[in-house]
Each structure stands twice: as structure tokens, then as C-alpha cells.
Amino acid sequence: MTKMTKKRVAMLLADVPEDKRFWCSDGRVLKNLSGLEGALNDMTAETFRRHSSESKSDFANWVRDVIGDEKLGRDLSKCSNAAQAARSVRQRITWLEDKMRTK
Fold it and tell me: What pTM was estimated for this model as a whole?
């Protein structure tokens, strides 16, 4: 497990490079965890299914491979709908922000 330093937390909360942004099937382009949470909060079930199903884990893969948050990636891979995924992202952001304040 990677130690959660302030620098690491800042990296997880930061915008990703332009060429690593997530392109949703509904046209939205996501560049950070806050954007992912916002998109999930008002995403249709159809759009969510296009990116997350038994055979696809686009959100989990992006969070794990691009943002670098393995824990949230694992959590997202278990979510069955957008609302549940949004809650997971919100909880992780809150936890990370708390780490920034306490370190």
C-alpha cells in the first residue's frame, strides 16, 4: 500500500493531463475525481451501463490506471449503479481532503 502523503493526496485530487481525460459516451469529458462525482450524480442508467457492467469497468480502470487510486478503483468496480458510484467517489474525496488537512 502506498503511503498517503500530502503530495500523494494532492496528486489524486488534481486534474489529469489533457490526453488522459475520460470521455463519457454522453459527451462529457472528465479531468478529476470531482468531475467524475458530478457526472455520476446526474448520469443516466444507460450511460453508466455503457461504461460499467460485468464486462466493462471503464470508471474503475480510469481511476486506478490514470488517477492512481487503487482503492477507489476497487470500490468503483463493485458499484452497480451511478448513484452508488457517486457515493463511493464522494466518500473517497472527503477522506482524501481530510488527509490533506491533518497531515
Answer: 0.94
pLDDT of 54: 87
How many angstroms separate the CA atoms of 85 and 82, rounded?
5
Is 47 among the domain residues? Answer: yes
Average pLDDT, the chain: 95
- Number of independent structural domains in the chain: 1
Please report whether residue 1 resides in a domain: no
Specify if 58 maps to a domain.
yes
Residue 60 lies in a domain: yes
Rounded (10°) angle between helices 82-102 and 6-13: 150
> What is the residue range of 35's domain?
6-102
CA distance linking residue 19 with residue 1, whole number of Å: 27
pLDDT at 102: 80
What 3-state class would DSSP assign to 29?
A: strand
Positions of the chain with pLDDT lower than 50, given as ranges: none
Residue whose cell numbers read 461504461: 51
